[in-house]
Amino acid sequence: MSDSYKVVSKITAKKIMEAVSQNTRLDGRGLLEYREIKAETGLISKASGSALVSIGKTKILAGVKVETGEPYSDKPDAGVLTVNAELTPLA
To answer: In the chain, how many domains are there?
Structure first.
């Protein structure tokens, strides 16, 4: 580990310890406070259902599409569920 990394880590650890001793987080919120949560539905017109959930500056968009079809002949009482996910790179 480089010396500069150790210094940054010690500074960060010190700030965290100071904040916790004052019952706050680094961003000033209390230890039991959470970021604002919002939810909006029906935003994707081509989806059977959709929602945009925001937690602070974090945003999650989900869409669901439902189709019915014929079951496979060897499993007439079973269905198929297909799941796809598209994720953006994290900053």
So the answer is: 2
| Same domain for 52 and 29 | no
Q: What is the largest distance, in Å, between two alpha-carbon atoms of the chain?
A: 66
* Entry pTM: 0.62
Cβ contact 65:83 at 8 Å? no
How far from 31 is each of 12, 21, 57, 69, 72, CA to CA, in Å?
A: 17, 10, 18, 50, 53
C-alpha span between 62 and 40 (Å, rounded)? 11
Q: Which residues form the domain of 2?
A: 1-33
Q: Which residues contact 83 (CB under 8 A, 6 or more apart)?
A: none
Each residue of 21-68: pLDDT tens digit?
Answer: 999 998 899 999 999 999 999 999 999 999 999 999 999 999 999 988
Confirm whether 86 is domain-assigned: no
